[in-house]
Amino acid sequence: MTEPEKLLRTVGIISRWDGIDFLIWFIDLAWVPVNEMENVHKMIDGIMAESRGALKPMAIVAQTDISPEQIKKVGPFLEKCVSSELPVYYSFGTAANALHLVVSHNERRLGKEADH
Fold this sequence. Notes:
This protein has a 3-stranded parallel β-sheet. The mean pLDDT is 78. The N and C termini lie far apart (51 Å). The protein is built from 4 helices and 3 strands, in the order αβαβαβα. It has one domain (4-115): 3-Layer(aba) Sandwich (Rossmann fold), CATH 3.40.50. It has helices at 4-15, 37-53, 68-83, 92-115, and strands at residues 23-28, 58-63, 88-89. It is of the alpha/beta class.
């Protein structure tokens, strides 16, 4: 995470690639040292900026534990993500379920439109 600019450039490139339907960012916050949280905030600021202009939907999987120390460390990060309306999930399972629901809804909707 020492070069967030390169990560954000990569986001821009990937979000324009036709072979990608959506982007999921996985961040294991339990392993991020407190002194690196500033870089995590810079990274998420860039991801939020990219998500506004991206051609693909984005979500974040923020894995952490629930100890009081962790909550103090990651609370502001999670608040930033949620307030930006960027979907945040706490596991790949919940992110996958949410994506399944959206895809299923769209498929049903498109099926109904084709019937008319």
